[in-house]
């Protein structure tokens, strides 16, 4: 077996390698999120990549990396309609933001995650409260591109049960 094929223990990886894995797995997760037609295997890979990315960030990251990892975990779980994990990771995202006093776009996106998770759970009043918090904080995002991304993401959150959307009632 060549050195390139040798599997090294995580403990033996350099911080640079861990960072590269964290980033690459985060980006791979986004590739799956944006894939128009995911298969069940794609859904599994998306979930696994998100958790693996979060693991590597937990080894070498900073509070903003931890918050963003939790945000992505919430997003993936919400996409997969996994209510409890979506809510858990959204709350952890906000916890990291509060513990480290993160603002910028991290805190508004924490509320976006909470709104999305509550929407998936069918708790539309709580989803609306978190949407309002995300909008209010989102107005403070200095970077126009980041601000537009937040508000675009907020528009993708269901604000009422799917049955009501379909029937118009």
Number of helices: 8
Task: Categorize the overall geometry.
Answer: globular
Strand count:
0
Query: In angstroms, what separates the terminal alpha carbons?
Result: 64 Å
- In helices, the fraction of residues equals over 70%
Q: Spans of 5+ residues with little confidence (pLDDT < 50)?
A: 1-6, 164-169
Proportion of β residues?
under 5%
Sheet with the most strands?
Answer: none
Q: Indicate the structural class.
A: mainly alpha
Output mean pLDDT.
92
Q: Can you write the helix and strand succession as a string?
A: HHHHHHHH
**Radius of gyration based on Cα positions:** 17 Å
Describe the fold and architecture.
This protein has eight helices and no strands. With 169 residues, the chain is mostly helical. Helix 2 packs antiparallel against helix 3.
What is the structure about, briefly put?
The chain has 169 residues and is an all-alpha fold.
Q: Any chance you could write out the topology, listing elements then pairs?
A:
Elements: H1 15-34, H2 40-60, H3 63-79, H4 83-99, H5 106-121, H6 124-138, H7 144-154, H8 162-167
Helix pairs in contact: 1-2, 2-3, 3-4, 3-5, 4-5, 5-6, 6-7
What are the defining features of this structure?
169 residues; mainly alpha; 0% strand; globular; disordered C terminus
């Amino acid at each position: 077996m060549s050195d390139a094929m040798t599997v090294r223990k995580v403990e033996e990886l350099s911080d640079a390698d861990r960072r590269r894995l964290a980033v690459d797995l985060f980006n791979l997760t986004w590739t799956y999120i944006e894939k128009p037609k995911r298969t069940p295997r794609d859904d599994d890979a998306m979930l696994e990549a998100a958790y693996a990315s979060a693991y590597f960030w937990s080894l070498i990251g900073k509070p903003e990396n931890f918050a963003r990892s939790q945000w992505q975990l919430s997003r993936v779980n919400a996409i997969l309609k996994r209510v409890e994990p979506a809510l858990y990771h959204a709350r952890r995202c906000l916890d990291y933001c509060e513990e480290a006093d993160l603002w910028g776009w991290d805190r508004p996106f924490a509320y976006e995650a909470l709104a999305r998770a509550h929407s998936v759970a069918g708790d539309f009043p709580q989803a609306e409260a978190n949407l309002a918090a995300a909008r209010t904080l989102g107005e403070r995002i200095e970077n126009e591109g980041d601000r537009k991304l937040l508000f675009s993401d907020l528009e993708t959150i269901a604000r009422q049960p799917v049955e009501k959307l379909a029937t118009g009632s």
